[in-house]
Amino acid sequence: MAFPLHRDILNPGPKDPSLLTQQNNHISSHIWSGKDHMLLPKQSYVRGPKPPEPILAMLKVAGFGYVVEIENFDIDVSLISALVERWRPETCTFHLPYGECTITLEDVALQLGIPVDGHALTGIIAEDWSIVCQELLGAVPPKNAWGGEGVALSWFANRFENLPINAPHNVVQQYTRAYIMRLIGSLLLPDKRGTHVHLMYLPLLKNLSSVGHYSWGSGVLACLYREMCHASKINSNQIGGCLVLLQAWAWDRIPSIAPKIDQSSGDQVHRGLGFPLSCRWSHCKKTTENSKHWVQCYRFSLDKLDVHEFIWTPYTSPDVRRYIPQDPGEVCYAIVPLICCAIVEWHHPDRVMRQFGLRQSIPQPPMNIDRLRKMDLKVRGKAYWPEATWINLWLQRRERLIQGFPSHAYFGDVSNYMKWYLDVTRKWISHEGALAGTMVIGVRNILRFATSETPNPIKCENIIQVCNDMLNVSHNYHSAPTYDSRQGNNENLQYKKPINDPYKQPYPMGFASYSKTHNPFSFSESHPTGPFYSVGAPPPPLMYNANPGTTTFSRGAHLHMPKPYGPPIPSFETEDEDESEDDFESEDY
Questions:
Q1: CA distances from 68 to 14, 188, 246, 315, 407 (A)
Q2: Is 135 a residue whose pLDDT tops 60?
Q3: Could you report the per-residue pLDDT of 446-502, keeping only the tens digit for each?
Q4: DSSP assignment of 178-219, as one string?
Q5: Is residue 218 part of a domain?
Q6: How many separate domains does the chain show?
């Protein structure tokens, strides 16, 4: 009997290079070839003293009443580096051993508590920023505080440190704008330096009562996506963006790499402690000073991540759900561009439907926005309005919602989705992780063969085959070859190229659809068609809840799509999908 060589077993992928087209320039290729890598992000977020009550009241009006509750937050540079190694710019998702996952608008709304629905963040660069600063801040930064068109955060902190007693209303507004600018530059939209904030956001703060009608959450997510796309390239060692969001997202979904936290008491929850959800992780210490050692540990943990070690819907847990004051809204399920001035990225909930409690089908090819990633404020000159195409798509967000059938198991779609995914993904980052992952798969295959109802001779041959494969890998993994993603060997997959024209993008296949006429939970052979919602003006921002201990979830959205929290979802069975996890392990994997 001939056994496959470890060269075939330890191929990290992708076997089919049609999806991950940038593999040769991705940091995972660099690491697989034996080279080390470590990002050097800003290592902490320090809120400083809480602002006085007049400013807090204004922040609540502006939609920033929750995010100000986030206190000091140490950034684990090792964890951030390991996560970025699995970030794929082609799909705007993390590629883990058991499927794609990503940070969505739902995560932004719940982890940061900022508005995710509303107008896109757009604008133009002013001719004279000094005039804008004098009008909206009542002061002009000195020359030594400027850095390009950004102003040092230290100037905002020093100039607006103490609100005068009995300050008039316009002065309170100026101090509130300055505080929001500090939040933008240090927490929400920091650049790689983390020391300056661009003044392009200041005009958006002119009318504080309208500030919350902007989708600050989509801007934060666009900026973080863009920073991870740049950081995932070979030779990149810097990263900006909201790393508090990235780290809190990972800790909530992968408990095996998260520190332990004490759950708040019922009285603390009633007083609003614990929301935004990232507040629960404040003051948690980072792992160790030996960052190089810990990035290897995190890398290994993600390589051998088990199916039950990733929590797809963490916000359904009663321990977490009680913190959430209200539903973040249906925009979290929209397949739309994320816009932050010159930055445009793509929100792909259709690729991570399990994060919304839905069965995952093979997604459509991702939107190709490589051209947009080559643009920045310097390229666009004095104007940083995104193209009208992207703004129009954002305005259509209520017509671009995913929907599908609820999944009551981790893999109700394994026979189709996972077979496709394992051919197009990068399964492992390190050789050690590939060895461990292969061993786990081998043991599961042995158990599957041993407990199957096939005749004993075939069962024994399969078990012997798997055992020999595992021994080959164990003895030879140190000499495992590197792979060129251009040498794809799966000619059966017909995965289409990424789509360039957003207006020609087809609707997702399978159970993900934009149409919403019928209840998707009523199974039928044909998909529903026709509009369900009329698109009107943007809804009001996420309002500050005077009683944070009470949850006021919207019920209407549950009529056409399941939510991570809300009323019970009717159960049903289909004949063409197997809900059993036993079918997951295939011989190819």
A1: 43, 11, 18, 21, 36
A2: yes
A3: 766 666 666 666 667 766 776 766 666 555 544 433 333 333 333 333 444 444 444
A4: HHHHHHIIIIIS--SS-SEEEGGGGGGGSSHHHHTTB-HHHH
A5: yes
A6: 1
